[in-house]
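Morning run. Coffee first, then this:
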Amino acid sequence: MRYLLVTLSLSMCFTVQAIEQACSQTIERSSPSVGFIDNKDGTVTDRATQLTWMRCSIGQTFNAQTSSCDGMPTAMYWQDALKTAEKIRTSPSHAIYQYAGIKNWRLPNIKELNSIREVACVNPAVNQTVFPNIFAIAEAEGGYAYVWSATPLASEAGVMYLDLNGGSLASTFGLEDYERQILLVADKVTE
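And here it is:
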């Protein structure tokens, strides 16, 4: 019931035109820009979790001059997303192997994805300053964008993902039926 009331109140606070980000002025930001350190290399570090995130989805290229992501995110099936993260982590021939000097890139779990979700905004439900142009795939493909997590459902053959449109955490059962974009994360490396 509480979730329903929050959803209803969020719906009434937004005015959405086309696929333009809309943010409530009455809801406190959950993922403000000051919560992230811009590493000036296409990554940001979350001050609260100490996780480092690629600012662009796989398939996009970070443009340091415009501080944006060029190109379109690559949508892929979940198994391919896991394999892609593994190749980036282990294959020196991969184009973004050790991106920004980081060796441990991986698919985030659903709690980690939830930590970057901006509850005050929709379309996309993330901070666009921190994660620029992450909604490009939605604008090109009719308004929907989703990001895979590494979190499988315990009782079913499904996986959790983040719906960038409204910010909900959702699940899918047909892993070979749906393609989603991926945003990679890395744990803080202590030496």
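The first helix runs from residue 2 to 13. Good start to the day.
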